[in-house]
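User
Here is a favour to ask of a fellow structure person. I am asking you to supply a protein in sequence and structure-token form. Please set it down just below, with no commentary around it:

Assistant
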Amino acid sequence: MNIRPETPADHSAIRSLTKDAFKGAAHSSGTEAAIVETLRETGALAVSLVAERGREIVGHVAFSPVGIGDDQDGWFGLGPVSVRPDMQRKGIGGALIEDGLSRLRALGAKGCVVLGDPDYYGQFGFEPRPEVKFEGVPPEYFTVLVFDEASASGNAVYHAVFYES
């Protein structure tokens, strides 16, 4: 498997993959593909990676800027993460997440937040931090990964596209 940054030639495959990956998922809003496209169109897709086997894209991960309280720089949100349904639970999503987090560190990011299963994201170092909140979500499902002892407190705010669904 090869993980690399997306290219314009990948956009259609990413759209299809994301739709398929979230189709029928209980936690899905059905807007994940549109979210990725809007982030890309507005220049807010900070890190966008694909996983490919041979010449086929089997996974994708997106990271976009997030503000936390008064701190509007250096924080990122993870997601969506998409893996082809028949390839899920084989480590592809985890490999994409690890690679993306490594790239964020190399960019000098302060940290990353994610809304999702705390047991799954905990394996990457994400943990609840009471000083960082996401309104309307139980705190155990909104977790934070801090790089180099950075700190922030307050409400996390994602790109506007995440609130449009």
Q: What stands out?
A: The longest strand covers residues 56-65. Helices lie at 11-22, 32-41, 92-106, 118-122. The beta strands are 2-5, 47-53, 56-65, 67-68, 75-83, 111-115, 132-133, 142-146, 154-157. The radius of gyration is 15 Å.
